[in-house]
Amino acid sequence: MRSALASIAALLISVLILLAGSGLQATLVPLAAKGYGFQDVLIGFIGSSYFIGMMIGCFAAPWLIKRTGHIRTFGACTALATGTAVLHALIVEPVTWNLLRCISGICFAVLYAVIESWLNDKSDNANRGTVLATYNVINFGGMAFGQQFLRLYPPAGFQLFSVSALLISLAAIPVALTRSASPMVPESPRLRLLWLIRLSPVGVAGAFTVGLANGAFWTIGPIFATLQGLGPGGAGDFITASILGAVAALWPAGLASDRMDRRYVIVLCSAVAALAGIALALTPSGNPWLLYGFAFLFGAGAMPVYSLSSAHSADYAKPSDMVVVSTGLLLVYTIGAVVGPTAAATLVEFTAPGALFALTATAHAGMAAFAIYRLTRRSPIPPEEREPFVPVPRTSPAVSELDPRVPQPDEEFEILEETDTEAPKGDAAGA
């Protein structure tokens, strides 16, 4: 196991540096936009543009990698992402920033696809779970680390955009210097959304809710924190607190869901996120530690819902369909993340900063209510038929190949052809 991680150490270093630059930029862009006087609605559009780019990049990645290869694709996308980061500081104009964030979203979706197909190539059936868990830790660690650069310079300036660009460009070095053979090109995503909705309504609703709430939180959350008197550095700590909450809750929630109906755990996490959102909306300014504490609870409740929804959907899918399930959930998540920032920004523009968390609380409360309703409509999958919980990142369709639940070519079992009219694993009704 140690040798497997050693073989991908350079790639994981690239991931850490890349996610630090991406995490810094995700928080920096709304803070800088606010500092430059952009209206909240325009900031929401900018946040939505990034996720539109992510959606495009998920479909463009296989074609681009097949055309140019993994290393050239990685180098080209890091160069383009570096350039877009710098251009934010050179051209301060909302329409341009929308375009730049869309390009950034495309670049990062392709970069994730390259990284994840490489990780899958360097892992095998015995260690894919360990590799995926390590990749998750690196993802969270890089995003949290990037927030701390906000203490160095004011957001409305060129310095922090330069730091973000520097980190993204440095991430290309370990990949560019690797002597490892390039992995197989990832397959183009296959979508069967109607089938997926019938397979697992709760899973689809959970993915959309996470996209809506997290997209809104990442775009408007830093602005909310600064308006609450935390300042740019405190806004970074506010986001970091939510990431730490996700790290603390992800595995306990997953283990609990392996022992009971996952919908109960989804209800609990959604309820925690809703209550934390209400608390954040009502917390008066000048209470930093209270805000950090509620942000921690928000992350602990909101962020595990996607992986729980993925695991719940996997319980009803055949192993041969897991890639289709993962791709569909990622698309639904991205659609929610496109809607979330603009919806939250519009509410904040015409009401108050706390409206951000009124929106997320409503979304999470609705998710909890829907999951409770579904509990009355279908009996749970028996424990012996449940797939094990896997914390799946919301990055690219290529990450599904790292999922231990996805069959690999060398695994010996019969792959059954399935059509939209076939009943999923379990009984005939949707989850």
Automatic annotation (TrEMBL):
Composition skew (Acidic residues), residue ranges: 409-421
Ranges where the record places region Disordered: 383-431
Signal peptide range: none
Transmembrane annotation, as ranges: 42-64, 71-92, 98-119, 131-150, 156-178, 199-218, 238-257, 264-283, 289-311, 323-348, 354-373
GO cellular component, one term: plasma membrane
Subcellular location: Membrane
Gene3D superfamilies to which the protein is assigned, alphabetical: MFS general substrate transporter like domains
Keywords annotated in UniProt: Membrane, Transmembrane, Transmembrane helix
Domain (Major facilitator superfamily (MFS) profile): residue spans on this chain: 7-379
Any GO molecular function: transmembrane transporter activity
PANTHER family in the record: MFS TRANSPORTER, TRANSPORTER MFS SUPERFAMILY
Name recorded for this polypeptide: MFS transporter
